[in-house]
Amino acid sequence: MFQIVLSLIAGILIGWNFHLFYMALEPKRCIEENNQTIISKSINQPKIIARTKVIPKKTHIINNINRSNRSNFEKLLNSDNFSDAMTFYLEADEKQLKKYKLILKVYFYDNRDKQPQKTIEEIKQYIDLEPKSQDFKLFLAKIYRDNKEFQKALELLFELKDNQSSKVIDSDLNITIENYVKYLENSKDFVKLISFFEEMINKNIDNEKYIIRLAKLYNELDNYEESKKLLEEISDDSIYSTNAKSILKNIENKEREVQHYTHIISLKKIGSQYGIDLSINQTPVTLLLDTGASYTFIDSDKVPSLILGKEILLNTAGGDIIAHLAKADTLSIADLELKNFQLTIAPFKREDSDGLLGMDFFEKFDFKINQNSGVLYLGEKSDYNSSR
């Protein structure tokens, strides 16, 4: 029995010595294992709060990075490095993109008046990256419209309309169309205006509305046949039928009136005025129409065959001048010829014309000048002796 007790004591002593030897070799590992044991035992206790402190620190770092990116994005835009700014844009996440888009809108808005062409090119670059960006396309169309580049604006707006139905797009399209029509009317570019109305009709954009507008324009240009042809397309139950009937009535009155004008003469635009080609004593000249001038007035160097008569004092816009009366054997315009026509001679130095056709000519006729179509209508008066 005594031997057994001695054996147990010897075993305990040997085991303890091995433990001390192991601790001497790997103390760190043993401590970590012991600590892990302690932590695992206390994992359900509310003492461990280290993880809750790490999360806000990480979020703070991310926010600082985002702010830094936004700042760099704005700096690149404002330092004329648009392409580099777009590199930031392409690498942005969805949240950053929203902020970048707002920054871009402000940037484009601030620069559209300062550098319109550069702004247009940069918006086009952005649209290439974001082809579905309706807001930026509408903004680009507005810049085109403000710059009177109406065709480019309309092309962009029609493209948007084809891809998406929107009241905003329709509103911008109508504004641009009306601005373009007004611009063409003011510049009297009726060829382009006719072409534009025809384009709207072919696009089926409220085509009856543009049929009426084109018919009215043809009527104003005295092209009655084309006007009547268009008005035939408007049915009696159309909302535009009243307009169509009104234009037709106006055409009927004009056609009766035109029968009185036996001479229809084309005019030529000279600056802001109209001129007419004619001949005096078989010498070709170009005279400006001036119904405010009492006398027809010819530059003294243009018709050498004229014999100067007595001097007269002429009151002109440039002041009083001395002129001479003269009598032309013939004054011919198109198929009309006047004999023994009295006019005045004085220096008239303009490269685009040789004088003025005044009221001493017009008072011999019933006349009408259509400035839209550039046509002079003359009807002979019965008490004036003229030959053709």
Mean pLDDT: 81
Described by strand count, sense and barrel closure, the largest sheet is: 6 strands, mixed, barrel
List low-pLDDT spans. 18-65, 383-388
Strand-residue fraction?
15-25%
Question: What is the rounded distance between the termini?
Answer: 165 Å
Number of beta-strand segments: 11
Helix content: 55-70%
Radius of gyration: 45 Å
Instruction: Give the strand order of the largest sheet, numbering strands 1, 2, ... along the chain.
Output: 3-4-9-5-8-7
Structural class: alpha+beta
The number of helices is 14
Descriptive account of the structure:
By secondary structure, the protein is α+β, with helices and mostly antiparallel strands. Residues 18-65 and 383-388 have low confidence and may be disordered. Helices cover 55% and strands 19% of the residues. Helix 8 (150-163) packs antiparallel against helix 9 (167-186) and helix 11 (207-220) packs parallel to helix 13 (241-258).
Map the helices and strands:
Layout (H helix, E strand, L loop, with lengths): L1 H24 L1 H15 L8 H29 L3 H10 L2 H18 L4 H14 L4 H13 L3 H14 L3 H20 L3 H13 L4 H14 L3 H8 L9 H18 L4 E4 L1 E3 L2 E8 L2 E7 L7 E3 L8 E9 L2 E15 L2 E11 L8 E3 L1 H4 L2 E6 L4 E6 L8
Parallel strand pairs: 4-9, 5-8
Antiparallel strand pairs: 1-11, 2-3, 3-4, 3-7, 5-9, 6-7, 7-8, 10-11
Summarize this entry quickly.
The chain has 388 residues and is an alpha+beta fold. It has 14 helices and eleven strands.
